Amino acid sequence: MHRAFGLAEVPEFDPFLMLDDFSSGNSEDYAQGFPWHPHRGIETVTYMLSGEVAHVDSMGNKGVIGPNSLQWMTAGSGIIHQEMPNPKIEPITGFQLWVNLPKKEKMMQSRYQDVLPEQINTISLNGVKVKVIAGSWNNVVGSIRDLMINPLYLDVTLLDGATFECGLSESDTAFVYVFSGTAAIDPHLTPIIASSVALLSNGDTVKIYAPNGAVRFLLVAGKPLGEPIAWHGPIVMNTKEELKKAFAELNDGTFIK
Fold this sequence. Notes:
The structure is a single chain. With 257 residues, this protein is mainly beta. The chain has two domains: 1-117 and 233-257, Jelly Rolls; 120-226, Jelly Rolls, CATH 2.60.120. The protein contains two helices and 22 strands. It has helices at 10-13, 240-252, and strands at 2-5, 16-21, 34-39, 42-50, 53-57, 62-65, 70-74, 79-85, 93-100, 111-115, 121-125, 128-134, 136-137, 140-141, 152-158, 163-167, 173-180, 196-199, 205-209, 215-222, 230-232, 235-237. A six-stranded antiparallel sheet has the order 1-2-9-4-7-10, with no helix packed on it. A hairpin with a 2-residue loop joins strand 11 and strand 12 (128-134). It is globular.
């Protein structure tokens, strides 16, 4: 598992908390999976390109996230679940993004939004292929709707020499995570190689090039919350007192609302 960014970078990536790239061709790397654990105060976005992850939770929900599928889970007031990759399938390629919830929504009801491959809205144009997961691009609206921070989440593939352009809000936090090939944002800047993340400066447009072969990357953007963060393990609240209460409820069996 490769962590593109996490706790140390949170102030710069607000409202995004963490991005993990869990890709491997060796089932021994991922067979142990992610056993039972709680979440509160965040949303987890699991996007699979290959392999399978079975999920089950304390409320009786269960299912399988397969190739080119995704699950946007809003933990809200609390959920206990496990996510277990299928070790019989190699390779596995996927990402998990953590999105912070606004203070007023941290104790909202838990929910899932599951999207199958055929439900992901996709557009191809001039050597550019874009899967619109959330938000919109070129008048194509994402499959995930009704989110608390209305983020943009795109999976973009560029053929050699192609250029991708996207309008952004100047106040948004935006980043690019390249997972195949090498991308360039400006000829005078250091290229973004595979397994690298680039945090974008403020602006209303980003242009990304494929200067030397095909490239594939995630583009994610959202409005910063600007709220205090109290984070311990899988729970993210606004104060230490709220964290202490969450773990006390875990211990006494009142965590699930």
